[in-house]
Known about the structure:
This protein has helices at residues 2-15, 37-54, 56-59, 64-81, 88-119, 122-131, 137-151, 157-172, 176-195, 202-210, 222-237, 259-278, 284-304, 306-311, 317-325, 335-340, 344-363, 365-377, 379-389, 395-405, 411-423, 433-441, 448-452, 455-472, and strands at 20-24, 29-32. By secondary structure, the chain is mainly α.
Amino acid sequence: xxRLLLSGLLVFFLGIPELTWAASTxxxxxxxxxxxxxxxxxxxxxxxxxxxxxxEEYTHLRKSKPVILAAGLIWIGIALAYGGGSDxxxxxxxxxxxxxxxxxxxxxxxxxxxxxxEERRIFDALRSWLLHKGFNLRQIFWLTGxxxxxxxxxxxxxxxxxxxxxxILAVGRDNHAFIAVSCINIVIAANAGGAFSPFGDIxxxxxxxxxxxxxxxxxxxxIPSVLNWFIPALIMSFTVPQSAPxxxxxxxVPVKRGAFAILALFIFTIxxxxxxxxxxxxxxxxxxxxxxxxxxLYGYYLKKTYHQARNRGYVDPFESVMSQAHTHxxxxxxxxxKIARSEWDTLLFFYGVVMCVGGLGFIGYLELASNLLYGxxxxxxxxxxxxxxxxxxxxxxxxxxxxxxxxxxPVGQWLLVTLTAGVGGSLLSIGSAAGVALMGQARGHxxxxxxxxxxxxxxxxxxxxxxxxxxxxxxxx
Length: 477
């Protein structure tokens, strides 16, 4: 039965039209499947999967599920088109898997550190400090924006946005207008802050690991990124009153033992990744995993000295309550719990995207897109258009597609597409993970329409940052 089904699929995929051969790549030649049934099938599958990704908020179907299935179906079609007698599809699939594995492991370590800092209550303490300083609403609007901008280069933009949004919700209470405009400000700031750092967003990380932009060259985008956030923030701030927020009756939150040591280890781990890449010419993921080992050893120390610390007077009231309610709660610090709480849906979604886009590239569609965008429009207009596209389509597949096309561009153009893909998602609430996350957290206050109302103002920041980059960094073009 299985053989009969595979035979039927093979006949379907090879039926129409005739295959043409791409340029020779060695002993074998790659098939041009762009006008073949397999190509049309792959495009249809990818579009259907991505529609489900866009509708995740309404269907509650995790975004990783449709793209993983689409990836499998696309590569089945490719394998059947080659009739099972060629090694080219397997070689291409393994190449894409290697790209994914390096990024997956890198992100896994970064997420583990962020989860460890969250568990040690670094972020809770920061939020508590903001709430108890007596700032007025306009000052909180600016402070949350500034902090989102400078935290997102280290933590991911979604975690940063959720942290700052928690402050806004606690301060704003029932002030609908303040919460809405502050959430927009946070989304813009978090996305802009992630654009000038190799660690600020998955897209910048992909560009760095690909080797087209060196680590320190990303910081040439700092001033354009600041302008991308500051221009719309300045205009929106005039709508925020300078009145005092309602009284906050929550208590200050202390950090747990070892919180600042873990923060220092995280910074050191980032330095290790940079050193491995720039000085030793090794994959940066090796540096990240070396840093993970240091976190594991420090976690072991925290766990072994937990009871000694309690005997010396250290008491964590929250942990005591949890231990009484759940007798199975582990005392001290459990590193594998931090790994388990990583954003697995995001990591698996990334797998599906890499394999889907890799399959479409192997079929030949990315070469066609590259010729259309970079051959006819030119690099500058193409990179600006890619940023606009990322406001509708997630910037991860967009950037991976550009890296797969690998157009011949100077560093200035690679920085331009890094900037636009990173901040273009701020134009719409659905354009970035930060925006989607805040629509759920501030449900009823921050919506697609409340964000859309400010899109023309956000666009001023978008094009202002592009102009600033082309002026300040013109020597890189």
